[in-house]
Amino acid sequence: MEKAKRIQLNIIMLIIFCLFPNLARADDISSKVNDYYYDELSILDESTKENIKKTNRELESKTGAQIVVLSLNNPDGLEGMDYGSDLFNELKLGDKVKDNGVLILFLEDKNTDQREIAIIPGYGLEGILNDAKVGRIIDNFMLDYFKNGQYSKGIDEGFNAVVSQVLSEYDITLDGNYEAYQENLEDGDGISMFEILFILVVFILISNMFTRISRGPSSYYRGRRRRNFPGWYGRSFWNDNDDDPFSGWSSGGGFSGGGFSGGGGSTGGGGASRKF
């Protein structure tokens, strides 16, 4: 009887892993993260590793935030945003109450030479690290290095840019020069002409809708609200894979004797990614 139950359980687990390969892979990776990073591709130099480790220890001690970096082989061609969200929630990055984790995920399919970088914030950081700003971090600080094969440098720069935004969110400072990253990203926070035109089009459509309503009963379309609204400039607008005040935080993980454990945070899948 016990043997039959074990066989049934194994069959169920096999079906789950076949239907949801991201979850199976995420569970495997979660046991390998150490000192806030796991470098399966061996692309991180010692300086970048030390920066990730040292900065995270100080940042987590002050805010509960965790910024984890993963470089992984991607032979199954998994999409960075979906895979990254599964990894994030498996690792439970950031504080459980404040949801202030961030995942920086570098993927490479050695069979096709296709690479992807994704940055995924927790729920609590989706204001300061909205989809558009995350896209700018990748474009402004990472892609040029990646295209020249300087993967460690690109990840280090992107990591520092993300840290700068977490510091702004909590109005704190760390050892290091983060002002340049903050200024660069603040300069891009103004509304663009393209965004103004988009707002104008939306305004006209809404005006027309109310005009039809005022004329009497008629059928009209109500747009479905997206998960990450507000933030119309998010992923749905750009069509790519492209603030929470500081308060007491409950520690549930972090650095301990060279290892890593998440603090209980979660993500809704915001952020951005780029393939190159």
Automatic annotation (TrEMBL):
Residues 257-276 are annotated as: Disordered. The chain crosses the membrane at residues 191-210. Residues 38-164 form the TPM domain. The keyword Membrane applies. Keywords: Membrane, Transmembrane, Transmembrane helix. The keyword Ribonucleoprotein does not apply. PANTHER family: UPF0603 PROTEIN YGCG (PTHR30373:SF2). This is TPM domain-containing protein. It comes from Anaerococcus prevotii (strain ATCC 9321 / DSM 20548 / JCM 6508 / NCTC 11806 / PC1) (Peptostreptococcus prevotii).
